[in-house]
Request: fold
Amino acid sequence: MQMIHGKQYFPVRSFTTLREMLDQSVRLYGDQTAFRFRDKPADPPQTRTYTDFRMEVDALGTALYALGLSGSRIAVVGENSYAWSLAFTTIVCGAGIAVPLDRLLPPEELTGLIRRGGVEVIFYDPQFQETLQQNLSETASLRVFVCMRPGKLPGGGDTDWTTPDESLVHGTQTIWMRLDALLAWGQNRLESGDTSYRQAVIQPDALMSLLFTSGTTSTAKAVMLSHTNVCADIFGIAGMVKLEPGTRMLSVLPLHHTFENTCGLFMALYIGAEIHVADGLRYIQKNMQEYGIDMVIGVPLLFANFYAKVQQSLAKSGKDKLVRKLIPLTQGLRRVGIDLRRRVYRQILDAFGGRLHLGICGAAPIDPEIIRFFDAVGFHILQGYGLTETAPVVCGCNSKIFVPGTVGQPVAGVDVAIDAEQPGDDGEILVRGPIVMQGYYEEPELTAEVIDADGWFHTGDLGRLDPKTKCISITGRVKSMIVLKNGKKVFPEELEYLIGQAGWIKESLVWGETGQDGDVIVTAKLVVDRERLKETIGQETDDSSIGAHLEKLIRDINARLPAFKGIRQYVFSFQEMVKTTTQKIRRPIEIGKISDLMARQKLRWQELTGKNIDPITEKPDTASNQATTESKSTD
Reply:
């Protein structure tokens, strides 16, 4: 086992709960802007200072206490908004246990998670009004419904809103309330001397939030996090990344994910940042220009889109060659202490508001070339790694350690180990420290499987530790790793990354298919972007020509790899694969679909390799017709 301990480079103030952290930030940054947001893209922006935010948290918390809801399981579901941040912060700062839910889940899965989490109160966006009303019988524990932005209800809505009142405490009726009414009532109680919420005792190690991982209602794991977990992650990040008060951050990623929740909300509040809520994905660049954003937290796709737009703009203006010539010169000057990047490449940076200088990237691998290019022009992207079970950030490049293509080193105060004996070998990534979750809700056996007796959390991810840089690289997943008959190992993610370098491949899936002789064959499914391929080759495409281009692509990729890693059989499609709401391919489902198809159609890989499987998938057969008949008879 190879182990590395996260170092602290910068001083960090001490706190044991998020409420204590927020109180500190209010004292330090009270009159500074904490949030800037709109309810609708056409509206003028609203602002809240740190003092304003704290007062509204207290008002909402006081109202929940007065309704007898303290300690309840309280869900939040909706788009990123100030109201979402207000509700969630109020819950974890003393009102109860937060259950953030994915707004993209289908109604039946959303209902299932509300039921599994024992949710009693829900803060929701208007688009969920109908779903919640229609599924009351499925969510017996849920009694109180709070609409966060009732002004967005179609036609103003026809709900019979309940006026907040102490008489509701012991009632059994279903209560529908507006957030603004609840806030006003709580404020009146505060002014009348009600201090119940402010005096609530928070145990740092008690359950703070219940977070469901990606999966169907039955397979999603519910991760239990405490204040200790999240506070430790804030300590760890702040100890290795230097962030200044007043940093303007754009909130883009969904707040129900721990990545945005910890880093984009609570870490931002810790440093005294200005949180700007994006008006939506299509408004990101506009918001960055309008607000003069300094920093953005995102996934690789976001930064890849930034990169593509810059490259297209440079090519269109004819300045791409000039920039390629200038980069070695400005990089040389940087090495001798002269940094002219933001002056020389001002036009590139102006497209993003002119102030953008820091990006935090996680959730999936990013092309190191994107990181290198943006760093060369003055925009620093730090790649990191984490999981919901670790609150979430485990490691990352930082203000002192920056090695593109790696996820850097552990955050301060955290141990990371690679379960491999030889330096540089691949092994499972293990994590130990206060960021590790309490466990999976109501699943002690599963918890014991992933957290061993020595406190190591087994991530299920594979990585390697570079003996020279002491930086970690993610190489794949334990479950998806292909073990060949001769014992050699192949990591699908490595091959999928190489395939993805062809811009006309939308997505790919690599796995090990066991042949009749027991040999394990590296196999792939590729989703082709026909329009991008047509643009690339400058001519129309049919299945035959696409097959020829794919054959060349696979041959070129195999030439770059040891022979045992080569892709030996593959199919292509134009249909996107089944994914989770976080856009991760559901590998077992996709592989199972192909296996079922081949079994039904009595196909062999020898006749399928290189072919488009869409026509075969759509082709009716006796087995599928029978399955359809059986399905209808049981509905």
Residues 621-635 have pLDDT under 50 and may be disordered. The chain has three domains: 18-201+248-277, 294-477, 482-634. The longest strand covers residues 505-514. Residues 18-201+248-277 form a domain with the Rossmann fold fold (CATH 3.40.50.12780).
